[in-house]
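Entry 14. Structure prediction run on the chain below.
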Amino acid sequence: MRIAIIGTGGVGGYFGGKLAKAGNDVTFFARGAHLKAIQENGLTVNSILGNFKLEKVKATDNIEAIGKVYLVVLALKAWQVKDIAVFLPSILHDDSTVLTLQNGVTIPEELKEYISPKHILSGLCRIISKIESPGVINHFGVEPTIIFGEPNNTKTERANKINELFDKAEIKAFISRDIDADLWKKFISICISGLMAVSKCSYGAVAANYGTRQLMIELFNEIYQLSQKMGIHIESDYVEKNVAIIDSFPFDSTTSLARDVWDGKPSEIEYQNGTVVKLAEKYGVDVPVNRFVYYCILPMEEKARKR
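Output returned:
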């Protein structure tokens, strides 16, 4: 199957690598030193579940050169999607699917400005991974999982076909019964990233300290209350379950947003705590912890984007 992986970071590099290893015709979109290393030396994936290397890899920094594909896995940072979305029509045919794996809850709607809704399949992934060095992906936490579904939550032939594709590549994947609920569940959990960035703490450090742990729980509860105001179907004990999951993470593990803020790079803050603040204003929900986190990071974000 012809597949395009748009964004070859920790997410795209791992899942795209697994799909290519399974024999699919995969082309990776990457840039800079990472692209050069992949083109010259292949793609290396170091994983807690087993390392592997792809010796020969198709990789480019020109989306239009990829050609028509059946599946596009959109694995860029959320804030990067708008910049490349205009090029997506060049690699789509009538039966192509674009699977979104971005953090946040707004990307599928944003994509509709550039491509037909019929191409879009909403999804999310769970994995802790990063680019270790050019051409090398490091998966160091959480069992990699993809959850995806149709906007109307129906099971379709294309969803089943993509699920079979993941299964053959030994990627744990599920077709969601309620994709909006699943997206919001992850949205709640990832917004700890802003708190980690502000406190300069890992998952374990945030959870271990009484004060930051209480802030984490309040932050989650604020987003949960927002989701209920918006009619999202999430079980009442989800925040408690989510805290238990975070307690199981490796102590020193961090998120890409936190690392980007610490490194002075542009981040996904607008798509995480920033989205919470904007939706809360629209729906009349008070979110003081998320508002504090967002406005603390915003000046750093503005500075990073001017570089």
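The radius of gyration is 19 Å.
Filed with the rest of this week's runs.
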